[in-house]
Fold:
Amino acid sequence: MMASALVTTGGRLYANRTQLAWSDYCCTAGLGFAVTETSLMFFQLRIARHAWNIPVCWLLGDTVKLRFGRSLITIMATLMAKTSIFLLLHQIFTLERGMIIAIRIGLAATCAVAMVSFASQCWNDIPRAGETWDDVALKFDRIIVWSPATSIMYLLLDLYMFLLPLPVVARLSWPTKKRLKALAVFSTGFL
Structure:
């Protein structure tokens, strides 16, 4: 998966090398965060098994700090990837006033979800006064509420991004075959 992201981003940067836009910079930053998170994940390969088979002592100490760092980096990677897509849509659909407003709403929603997620992660995973990192590791109930909520919000944003360009492309005065091809290109986001 990482290889395809590297090839796709590299191709995008090569194609736009003479006139890079903000979407290209966000895409590159998102890739950088994703590569960093993947690299940190390799430090935790020994606990890559079912939670029932992990000794509690493996979840304490530096593992808690590493998990916290990975979660913040994942939030930033997700923010940059979604921002990149919204900025790319903004570049493509600059003539449609309603589309620009819809894209800006999606961009604001993406930033809001990322900021709330970042704040929640810090609130739940940083030890409070008198606690240690080991105490935080044993309190999994702190993240149980926010994790599903964040996942649902990101899923809704993905659906929003997927559906956003389809009505504009469907209204184009192109031949049906050409419109279907354009719809197929934008529909790849559904995969």
